[in-house]
Specification:
- This protein folds into four domains: 2-128, no CATH class; 142-175 and 213-411, no CATH class; 423-531, Elongation Factor Tu (Ef-tu), domain 3 (Beta Barrel), CATH 2.40.30; 542-722, 3-Layer(aba) Sandwich (Rossmann fold).
- The chain is 50% helix and 14% strand.
- The protein has helices at residues 2-14, 19-28, 39-42, 44-50, 52-65, 68-85, 101-107, 130-178, 185-195, 216-234, 249-274, 281-286, 290-329, 336-354, 357-362, 364-389, 398-419, 501-510, 552-567, 585-594, 671-683, 698-711; strands at residues 110-111, 127-128, 425-430, 435-442, 453-458, 468-476, 489-496, 519-523, 525-531, 542-548, 575-582, 609-616, 632-635, 660-666, 689-695, 717-722.
- Strands 8-3-4-7-6-5-9 form a seven-stranded antiparallel β-sheet.
- It is elongated and about 115 Å long.
- It starts with a helix and ends in a 5-residue tail after the last strand.
- 40% of the residues are buried.
- The structure holds flavin-adenine dinucleotide (FAD).
- Flavin-adenine dinucleotide is lined by residues 360-361, 364, 453, 468-471, 494-496, 498-503, 550, 553, 724-727.
């Protein structure tokens, strides 16, 4: 708190402008009816720049109360900027050379706060009393401070994000170094207590204003960000009753809070956009996934919507109070900056309201479409608002536009790169497992990385704006022995059928059904990627996968990578264990058939121990919060059959060809217990590095986080990666 007040004081000191003294002297003569031209007929600046009596009074005030530097700054501004703006020229400073301060104070009429607006005409310059000058100085410097402080506080928030990102980059670097070097224990403790665990251990995802509570470290950052904004919007105002611009404290506070909230809101906009785009280099630099940046994006949006709302309401109320009902109902709303600013605020409110997770999840594509449309209207509204009301702040809008354009160009560039000249993809629908496998031929330029994902676009869909993220489940290299049918590298995606794009694709495939409900055909599906933060776990001797449902696609990609490395004698992996919770046994069979059988050709022998615990959770809806369930072991075959006539686990052990040891359980796994006991069983062994890779629904990710942080208590070197499956 002390640091904060010191920073606030520094920001406030930095905003005492040298120009304030000159402005204060200038305004002291505003209401004095000198003989000759006066402000009511020619305007204040023409009057102040040309009426010799006014100019002498202003100059004398400056000479008596301002420092030489302040005098120079003010004279330069009046001579070079303000007077030329009205096509008039300020007389020379020498017009007060022939009178001393003492003479002026003695001979000229004195003006103070009470006599500041006399009615009689003045035929001489006036002497400004110190007390009156001070009131103007305070009025003026308060006014300037608000502008400067608003910017400084906004920079403080930009600095906060800079610090967060710096921390993220250093943390990522440390995680990388940790693979080859021993880092101080503090690093592990920091991850164990702050980075990995969720905020509340006992509950999975806790709805808070229709959102979810993110992990502890993320939550802390968000809390600091929200508090920083709230504090900086509402501190260091110096309202006083004699203020000469706004005649009541309430008016002053309204104007100043209105300005501050508007400025801070605008300065937040670049990060709002940066954190919301797919092609964000910071994802790669920090190792944080898109979901993390998306959380930040949402919280920035919520906070700045609140700021924009306060800004708008305050100005509307102020204008209503100042101008009266008739002005408010007629003239006020005709100003483009006013109504476009109001439109921008309304857009933000709708954007936030429609981004609640219940709506987002129910109709994701509609949400995305509305989100983009409202974002465009918001930017247009903001542009017109700022163009008239603070053009300097447009500098904070353009980076947002640039980030957006950059993202779009990269998206479509990458889509074109992968798609142009590529043969059609091949899609297969497997009825029992209710999964679609899409194999997309692509250029041979990347080495596919497990843990990454691509966006799939389909020409079958009329909704061309749609693109859906899918984890890379496997690949075939054109250069591998036997090559590929398409002569290109092929990326394999596996997906569960939901209600939108996936359901439409299933319909297309079902039209080509083979009689047993399965269907396959060539489809126009294109990919855009690569996205995600590929995590290489090969440095760990033990690999533990904790996956739920289709989250198994993350494991299949890693398994393929390990199999390749073992075949090339480049692997130091000694054990792979998979904990997989799924509803549909047929899905297990499908993965067994398409993925695990590959291992029959891998020369694992005694070198690598492969095991899997399969938890069949049945058809019941999976609740949001994990329940205490005692899983019942139902079968422990050495291997699992590749074909089964029904949806039930097999009752007899099949052939011994597969190196996998698989155990089946009924019910949901107690993930924390399973992971921790697994980790502890390693800690007595000599090879102490364990990688835990998780992917699945939110409730599962929650439990996996708790489990990882507990596993870190052992003396194992635990590394972890939680692949995103949702945002
Ligand atoms: C990084 C990532 C990797 C994924 N990998 C896989 C995978 O390998 N296999 C798999 O089966 N599923 C995966 N998913 C989930 C998959 O993206 C959605 O199930 C799919 O988009 C649903 O499409 P739909 O139109 O049929 O769904 P809908 O029935 O319209 O929606 C079903 C759910 O999917 C979400 N969703 C829909 N469209 C999108 C989108 N464009 N972006 C993010 N979420 C969306 C919705 O919020 C909703 O909760 C992944 C999701 C993410 C974020």
């Amino acid at each position: 708190m002390r640091l904060l007040s010191l920073l606030l004081t520094l920001a406030a000191c930095a905003s005492a402008l040298p120009m304030d003294c000159g402005w204060a002297c200038l305004f002291t003569v505003e209401d004095i009816p000198f003989t000759g031209i006066n402000s009511s007929t020619v305007g204040f600046y023409v009057f102040a720049c040309t009426n010799p009596l006014a100019v002498q009074s202003i100059f004398m005030c400056m000479r008596y109360y301002c420092t030489e530097h302040e005098q120079q700054v003010a004279l330069n501004a009046f001579n070079d900027t303000y007077c030329p703006l009205y096509d008039v020229k300020l007389p020379s400073w020498s017009i007060i050379d022939n009178i001393t301060d003492a003479e002026a104070e003695k001979e000229w009429p004195h003006i103070d706060y009470d006599t500041r607006a006399p009615t009689e005409t003045f035929y001489t310059p006036v002497w400004i009393e110190r007390s009156y000058y001070k009131i103007w100085y305070r009025t003026e410097s308060d006014f300037d401070n608000i502008e400067v402080n608003s910017d400084n506080y906004g920079y403080g928030i930009l600095g906060f994000w800079g610090a967060v990102l710096f921390f993220g980059i250093v943390n990522n670097l440390c995680r990388y170094l940790r693979r080859h070097h021993r880092l101080p224990r503090a690093f592990t403790l920091f991850h164990r207590y702050l980075v990995v665990p969720p905020v509340l251990r006992s509950r999975s995802t806790v709805p808070v204003i229709h959102s979810e509570i993110p992990p502890l470290m993320q939550t802390l950052m968000i809390i600091i960000f929200v508090c920083l904004n709230l504090i900086l919007c509402f501190v260091t105002y110096d309202a006083f009753s004699q203020d000469l611009f706004w005649h009541s404290k309430a008016d002053q506070l309204m104007r100043y809070i209105g300005w501050r909230t508007g400025a801070i809101c605008t300065l937040n906009i670049p990060f709002l956009w940066l954190f919301g785009i797919r092609n964000n280099l910071l994802i790669w630099m920090t190792g944080w996934d898109f979901a993390t940046f998306n959380q930040f994006h949402r919280w920035i949006a919520r906070v700045i919507t609140l700021e924009a709302l306060v800004h708008t309401v305050i100005f509307i109320v102020f204008e209503y109070r100042a101008g009266g009902r008739v002005y408010f109902m007629t003239e006020f709303w005709q100003y483009i900056d006013i109504y476009m600013g109001t439109v921008a605020t309304l857009c933000m409110m709708f954007l936030c309201a429609l981004a609640v997770s219940s709506f987002r999840r129910a109709v994701y594509d509609v949400f995305v479409l509305i989100h983009k449309a409202l974002a465009i209207v918001f930017l247009a509204g903001l542009y017109y608002h700022l163009f008239y009301d603070g053009p300097a702040y447009l500098n904070y809008m353009w980076p947002a536009v640039a980030f957006w354009v950059f993202d779009r160009v990269l998206r479509y560039g990458r889509l074109a790169y992968w798609s142009i000249g590529a043969p059609r993809a091949f899609a297969e629908y497997h009825r029992d497992a209710d999964v679609i496998q899409v194999t997309v031929p692509v250029r041979q330029s990347i080495s596919p990385q497990p843990g990454t994902y691509f966006f799939l676009y389909s020409a079958h869909s009329l909704q061309v704006w749609e693109s859906h993220p899918f984890t890379l489940a496997g690949w075939r290299r054109a250069s591998s022995p036997g090559g590929t049918a398409s002569g290109r590298d092929e990326l394999i995606f596996l997906f569960q059928v939901r209600k939108g794009f996936t359901s439409r694709l299933r319909k297309t495939l079902c039209n080509r059904t083979d009689g047993d409900g399965n269907g396959a055909c060539k489809v126009r599906v294109n990919v855009e990627g690569v996205y995600g933060t590929p995590y290489s776990s090969g440095h760990c001797a033990r690999q533990l996968f904790v996956v739920g449902g289709m989250g198994v696609t993350v494991a299949t990609a890693y398994l393929q990578r390990f199999a390749e490395a073992i075949q090339q004698n480049k692997s130091s992996v000694r054990e792979i264990h998979i904990i997989w919770a799924l509803r549909n046994y047929a899905l297990f069979q499908y993965i067994q058939e398409t993925c695990l059988t590959l291992w029959e050709q891998v020369p694992v022998a005694d070198r690598v121990h492969l095991s899997m615990d399969v938890y069949l959770t049945g058809d019941a809806d999976v609740p949001n919060t994990p329940k205490e369930v005692t899983s019942e072991k139902i079968f422990t075959p050495a291997v699992v059959p590749m074909e089964s006539d029904n949806d039930q686990p097999p009752s007899t052990p099949p052939s011994q060809a597969s190196p996998w040891t698989i155990q089946f359980y009924n019910g949901r796994p107690d993930l924390t217990a399973a992971v921790v006991s697994h980790a502890r069983s390693f800690s007595s062994e000599e090879t102490k590095s364990l990688a835990i890779i998780g992917c699945g629904p939110r409730s599962m990710t929650h439990s996996t986080r708790v489990a990882i942080s507990m596993a870190m208590e052992s003396d194992l070197e635990v590394d972890y990666y939680l692949a995103p499956f949702d945002w």
